[in-house]
C-alpha cells in the first residue's frame, strides 16, 4: 500500500470517528468512558497521564456497564485489538 493510499485511508477513518464522536450517542459513550477512567484513577490503578487505558470486560456496546467488576486497566494496543464496537 502506498503512502498516499495509507494517508487517504487514515483520513477516511478519522472523519468517520469524528462524526461518530460528535453524535449524541457518541457524546454519551465518551462521558461513560471518561467516568470509567476517573474511577480507576481514584482507585489508584491508573495515573492521570498514564498511556494505559480502561477496558470494559463486557463492552458498553454489548450491554456492559461502568461498575468496577467490569473494568480493568490494560495497554492501549491490547484494548484496540479487541475492537468491540
Structure in words:
This protein is mainly alpha-helical and 85 residues long. It has one domain. The protein has three helices and two strands, in the order H-H-E-E-H. Strands 1-2 form a two-stranded antiparallel sheet. It is globular and about 45 Å long. The mean pLDDT is 86.
Features:
two-stranded antiparallel sheet, 85 residues, mainly alpha
What spatial order of strands do you see in the largest sheet?
Answer: 1-2
Can you give the mean pLDDT? 86
Work out the strand percent: 5-15%
Q: First CA to last CA: what distance? A: 26 Å
Largest sheet: 2 strands, antiparallel
**What structural class should be given to the helix and strand makeup?**
mainly alpha
Low-pLDDT ranges: none
Which bin fits the share of residues in helices?
A: 40-55%
The coarse overall form would be globular
What is the total domain count? 1
Tally the helices: 3
* Number of separate strands: 2
Radius of gyration: 15 Å
Element-by-element helix/strand order: HHEEH
Amino acid at each position: 500500500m502506498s503512502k498516499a493510499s495509507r494517508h487517504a485511508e487514515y483520513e477516511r477513518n478519522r472523519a468517520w470517528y469524528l462524526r461518530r464522536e460528535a453524535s449524541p450517542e457518541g457524546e454519551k459513550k465518551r462521558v461513560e468512558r471518561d467516568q470509567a477512567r476517573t474511577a480507576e484513577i481514584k482507585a489508584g490503578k491508573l495515573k492521570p497521564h498514564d498511556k494505559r487505558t480502561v477496558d470494559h470486560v463486557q463492552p458498553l456496546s454489548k450491554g456492559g456497564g461502568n461498575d468496577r467488576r467490569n473494568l480493568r486497566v490494560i495497554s492501549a494496543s491490547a484494548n484496540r485489538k479487541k475492537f468491540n464496537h
